[in-house]
Q: What sequence folds into this?
């Protein structure tokens, strides 16, 4: 360790190989040359123990860590115990110089602890000895507190290293040791020349390891907490006044104003009752409606512009000094606060006699606030959802809203009545045509159905006639035959007349006779009089196919009625 620190001090000022070493560095180099011959006399036992049998011994691994401004040291010792016989010997040690960048002593102590954990893990994996217990010793109370605390509370430097320590060890494995009994300090603090003999405590460990555990250093009884390297936390206390009512619960400006007016009247009546005064009843007066409007507008301004509102309130009580920052959205509007606490624009027509106070100094409203949307919607409904330019002009007579047209358009788009007025009926989606209606220039597929009855006069009597409608499925051509009755023979005669003029169809589609007449008595009569079997026998052949449609398949049944 001494030579590592010396080499770092030589190279730190940027010395070259041929530069001469002078001053304190040269005296340290001479001290190292005096110690170097003593290494020849150093003797280390090859065996870890000699008096204790291996099979009946309790083996413990003790790791001591320490750090100073110059470097870090970790030393591992094996402690064999069997009955009253105890042996202790050095197994491994590792040193490392401090980084060139400055680190505090607690951080270097933590680095030494990480070095000790890594060295102990290497020893445990390398040796074939069955180690029953591992104990880590450090004279830094900060390290002991960090290991026993929640490492997420500390800075990333400490948190990452404590996390690595806890991956391999437990907090109960770490103990505090006084500085004078920490053998790792012999490698970091060279007050005098080191002892190179085999009986030195560097080779055999501290004296208390040769005793039973009750003679080991007592652990401190103070709370194992520290404020060193705590992660900084920013705590901000903000006092926010809650509104009298929730704005989002209302969809009408007039209803919200009336509700708050009644709440204020109720609170005022309670005060009047306590003072033995007459309470207010009946309809709301103009003064009672004006106060809620001012309250809602002030609340909206405080929600949207809290910093500007607070600064303007302070400027009211000061003759000069602070102004709005240039980054504020209200900087170019030269706002001010009137006697009612409402933020207004300082207009240029204050000398106008016939203009109202609201027109001279319009009230500032935030464009994205719910109160602004309710006010714009109120004017929109007041003019019956029309006269949009008039609505915008009336709003500007009292309020100043940035990008008013886009705000008004947003309110119009959310108005349900305007949505209904602008709605356009959507045509229904048509289904695809059947396969027999497409793909053929000349179709031989026919649909057949009856319509009627039609009353005709023959002489002095009246008779009923029906019409048989035959429809081409491809080009929608229509052929009508007169049917004298609903009997099967009449149907056959009508079909033969059609075939003789139009040709033999390959496929005929029809229902099962329930639509031959109407929807009442004639329909029942049709079912009883039509013999479907005879019709199929007369017309179904190798060239003609008769298909009866299901009663409730309206898509197919409509083929004959299109």
A:
């Amino acid at each position: 360790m001494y030579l590592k620190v010396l080499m770092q001090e030589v190279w730190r000022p940027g010395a070259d190989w041929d530069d001469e070493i002078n001053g304190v560095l040269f005296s340290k180099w001479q001290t190292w040359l005096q110690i170097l011959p003593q290494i020849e006399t150093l003797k280390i036992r090859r065996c870890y123990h000699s008096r204790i049998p291996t099979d009946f011994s309790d083996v413990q691994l003790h790791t001591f860590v320490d750090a100073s401004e110059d470097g870090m040291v970790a030393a591992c010792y094996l402690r064999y115990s069997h009955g009253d016989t105890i042996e202790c010997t050095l197994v491994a040690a590792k040193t490392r110089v401090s980084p060139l960048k400055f680190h505090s002593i607690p951080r270097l102590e933590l680095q030494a602890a990480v070095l000790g954990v890594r060295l102990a893990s290497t020893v445990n994996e390398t040796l074939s000895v069955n180690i029953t217990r591992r104990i880590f010793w450090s004279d830094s109370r900060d390290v002991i507190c960090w290991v026993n605390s929640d490492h997420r509370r500390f800075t990333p430097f400490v948190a990452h290293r404590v996390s690595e320590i806890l991956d391999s060890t437990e907090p109960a494995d770490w103990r505090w040791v006084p500085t004078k009994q920490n053998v790792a300090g012999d490698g970091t603090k060279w007050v005098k020349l080191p002892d190179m003999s085999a009986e030195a405590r560097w080779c055999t460990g501290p004296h208390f390891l040769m005793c039973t555990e009750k003679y080991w250093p007592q652990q401190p009884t103070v709370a194992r907490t520290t404020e060193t390297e705590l992660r900084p936390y920013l705590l901000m206390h903000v006092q926010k006044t809650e509104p009298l009512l929730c704005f989002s619960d209302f969809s009408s400006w007039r209803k919200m104003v009336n509700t708050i007016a009644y709440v204020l009247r109720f609170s005022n009546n309670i005060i009047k009752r306590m003072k033995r005064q007459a309470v207010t009843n009946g309809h709301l007066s103009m003064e009672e409606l004006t106060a809620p409007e001012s309250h809602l507008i002030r609340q909206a301004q405080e929600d949207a512009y809290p910093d500007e509102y607070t600064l303007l309130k302070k400027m009211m009580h000061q003759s000069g000094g602070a102004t709005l920052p240039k980054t504020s959205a209200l900087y170019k509007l030269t706002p001010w606060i009137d006697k009612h606490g409402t933020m207004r624009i300082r207009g240029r027509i204050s000398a106008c006699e016939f203009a109202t106070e609201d027109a001279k100094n319009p009230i500032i409203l935030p464009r994205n606030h719910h109160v602004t949307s309710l006010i714009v919607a109120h004017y929109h409904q007041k003019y019956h959802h029309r006269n949009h330019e008039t609505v915008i002009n009336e709003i500007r007579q009292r309020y100043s809203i940035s990008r008013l047209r886009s705000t008004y358009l947003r309110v119009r788009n959310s108005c349900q009545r305007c949505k209904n007025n602008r709605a356009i009926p959507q045509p229904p989606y048509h289904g695809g045509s059947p396969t027999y209606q497409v793909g053929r220039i000349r179709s031989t597929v026919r649909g057949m159905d009856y319509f009627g009855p039609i009353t005709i006069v023959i002489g002095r009597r009246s008779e009923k006639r029906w019409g048989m409608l035959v429809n081409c499925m491809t080009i929608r051509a229509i052929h009508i035959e007169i049917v004298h009755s609903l009997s099967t023979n009449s149907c056959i005669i009508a079909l033969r007349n059609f075939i003789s003029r139009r040709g033999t169809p390959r496929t005929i589609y029809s229902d099962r006779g329930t639509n031959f007449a109407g929807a009442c008595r004639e329909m029942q009569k049709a079912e009883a009089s039509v013999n479907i079997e005879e019709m199929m026998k007369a017309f179904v052949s190798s060239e003609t196919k008769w298909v009866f449609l299901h009663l409730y398949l309206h898509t197919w049944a409509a083929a004959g009625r299109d």
Residues 514-524, 553-562 have pLDDT under 50 and may be disordered. The longest helix spans residues 105-126. The first strand starts at residue 58 and ends at 67.
